[in-house]
Design a protein that fits this description.
This protein has 218 residues and is an alpha/beta fold. The chain starts with a strand and ends with a helix. It has 8 helices and 9 strands. It is 33% helix and 15% strand. The strands form 2 sheets. It has a 7-stranded mixed β-sheet, sandwiched between helices. The chain is globular and about 45 Å long.
Amino acid sequence: MSKKVAVVLAGCGVYDGSEIHEAVLTLLALDRRDISYQCFAPNINQLHVINHLTGAEATGESRNVLIEAARIARGNVQDLAQARAEDFDALIVPGGFGAAKNLSDFAVKGSALTVQPDFLKFAQAFHRAGKPIGLICIAPAMSAKIFGEGVECTIGNDVETAAAIEATGAKHVACAVQKIVVDKRNKLVTTPAYMLAQRISEAADGINDCVNTVIDMA
């Protein structure tokens, strides 16, 4: 039977949603392995909206995470509240600040973060079932909330961010941009992507390895 992967998006755009390159590279890597996938996103408002040309907050503007994620998924995205882990063999979450602003509040609360309830329920269901999960870029900041204390993950080598992640109970492992960190016990695969990448090809190397490892573990 062909494997099927759930991909959770957090909006559209590096500063307030899913990092578009990371999301597309994830979907491309899945397609190249002939793996079917379904995109999901929470049907909630973004924390805020960022003007990606200037980097400034677009005050007074509001956007919906699910509707924005549809831009990346070409409309083929479903409400995360309706997702069922039993329908899939693995879960992958691209990065971008949306993972730290919409799927969690790590960008605001750091190590005291909470995780969006629908996403936490979905991800923990994969963990309980022994199904692999791939977290990309800043998404590994949620690792301890999903897997519990001692889970191994990476966001690359940023000292301050790594310290905040370790304060949640996770074990941070320094990692080069093209590489991955695999926690075999928890079936978690993480890669730095644009936490370190200076070029799209650098992000692609780690994401491809992450996706392929997740698939092979499923």
